[in-house]
Amino acid sequence: MKNKRKIRNILISLFLASLILGLYTWKIEPHWVQYEQIDLDTKHLPITLDGETLIQISDIHIGNYVDKNFIKETFSEISLMHPAIVVYTGDFVRLVDGKIPIQELGEVMQKAPKGKLQTLAILGNHDYGKGFQDSAAADSITRLLNGYGIKVLRNESTTIEGLQIFGMDDFWGTNFNPVKAMSGYDPSKASIVLCHNPDVADLHVWNNYSGWILSGHTHAGQVRIPFWGSPIIPVTNKKYDQGIKKISGDRTLYINRGLGHSIPIRFNARPEVTIFKLKKIQ
């Protein structure tokens, strides 16, 4: 009798623990934003930008899994920080019934945080629609973002008070051309690269670039087992999961965990907004 009671209590405890864990991964962590604060050391940075803030937002995945109000509320919090520069590193949407949710994205991007000096974006694989090969979908998202004052860099660069920012189109999309994107790189100028998929860091396309590369795409696997990591990360180089990675060529890769999600759970991989402080180094 005592053994039966003990087994019953163990089963009840396991059930309750599973229920609590399930609710946490489904309802709490996906909406528990972590604001990472990182110094972005930059060679040749103009003195006018030294100490200014650059905020990275990635992978909002507007669609049928991410709560639009959660994104809007986070956007409002970011706007109160009055950053100098805001960059969006791709995956604005997730397909709904095989279609790009362009109206829903427009509703959310009305609240999009803007930089005092500039607001930039690149596209991610999901922005290319079904099979990541729908150029028309990518073009429609580009037009929408441009309409809200967000400049989309598609294998090109722009200069903000002497800081060059390069933007690569998505690795899995139809318009990936990193050689074109990096053709204007000048090592005597301050530079940052936006590249959605961190696997691109391992390609021989960088034109001797040295500096920071800001990416997203992985969501840190969304489920990370303590002391082991994530069993599923959508990159070839499994070291590219999250955070800062020092890589060859005097480059620093930063992998943002994303604000949204592609499946409606997160565990040990909180959504992220990255607040970079620009710092001039020799």
Describe this structure in words.
This protein is an alpha/beta fold and 282 residues long. It has helices at residues 2-28, 68-79, 102-109, 135-147, 178-181; strands spanning 34-43, 53-57, 85-89, 118-122, 151-152, 156-160, 163-167, 190-194, 211-215, 243-247, 251-255, 272-281. The strands form two sheets. The protein has a six-stranded mixed sheet, with helices on one face. A six-stranded mixed sheet has the order 6-7-8-9-11-10, with no helix packed on it.
Instruction: Please state how the strands of the largest beta sheet are arranged side by side.
Output: 1-12-2-3-4-5
Average pLDDT: 93
Radius of gyration: 20 Å
Query: Between the first and last Cα atoms, what is the distance in angstroms?
Result: 75 Å
Helix content: 10-25%
* Largest sheet properties: 6 strands, mixed
Q: How many alpha or pi helices?
A: 5
Structural class: alpha/beta
Q: What are the low-pLDDT stretches, counting only 5+ consecutive residues below 50?
A: none
Beta-strand share of residues? 15-25%
| Number of DSSP E strands | 12
The H-and-E topology, N to C, reads as HEEHEHEHEEEHEEEEE
Shape: globular
